Here is the input.
Amino acid sequence: MNQTEALLVTLSIEVPIAVALAVWRGWVAGRLGTVALSSLAASLLTHPLLWIVDPRLKTSFDTPMRWALLETAIALVEAGVYVVGAGLTARRAIVTSFLANAASFGIGVAIYAWA
Here is the structure.
């Protein structure tokens, strides 16, 4: 999977999860577009950075540790985008970001294993 395909997979998973979670929990009544745009912006910010940093860390960390560090950093940065862009509380932003990223990471790993 190339970077563009991976980004499309990420967006197709993370944006709907963020919106669905906000709807389900009633966190942003009337501002779902803001949550969707924040999720889009968060992924567009962090995804290219992941593709730049990951190869550079290969010599320093084994794969599980590297991915854990990167995914944690990405989830925290994206949570910040949810706070600033969507107006979520820090706790809600962290929950949203970690759930969306866990889902896209898990599905991404499954896609790579399947291929």
User: Anything to note?
Assistant: Helices lie at 3-25, 32-57, 63-86, 90-114. The two ends are 9 Å apart (CA to CA). The first helix runs from residue 3 to 25.
